[in-house]
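Hey,
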Amino acid sequence: MKYQGSCHCGNIKFEVEGEIKSGLACNCSMCQRKGSLLWFVPRHAMRLLTPEENASSYLFNKHKITHRFCATCGIHPYATSSMPTGEPMAAINLRCLEEIDLEAIPVTHYDGRSV
């Protein structure tokens, strides 16, 4: 299935294709503060519909994940990194997708604070 997503103001828009089997709630210092619910997909499954430079970047800790956010409205719709195999991946914030029922998605809790 193909989903549309965006930040709040629409400065960052994207589409992502795949099956949402679950979301991941992480308690690391970043994810806990922004309240994201993550869905990991191969990077090629996500396509930006707005220029890449519309998304600002933030790196912290080991600098392995590029957290992308809108400098206008402050929303974090996705992040990019690599899977353990080295394949590029995107971590989609499910809360930024249109027309999905978040209550129907099983959530896995990850202790990112202890990693």
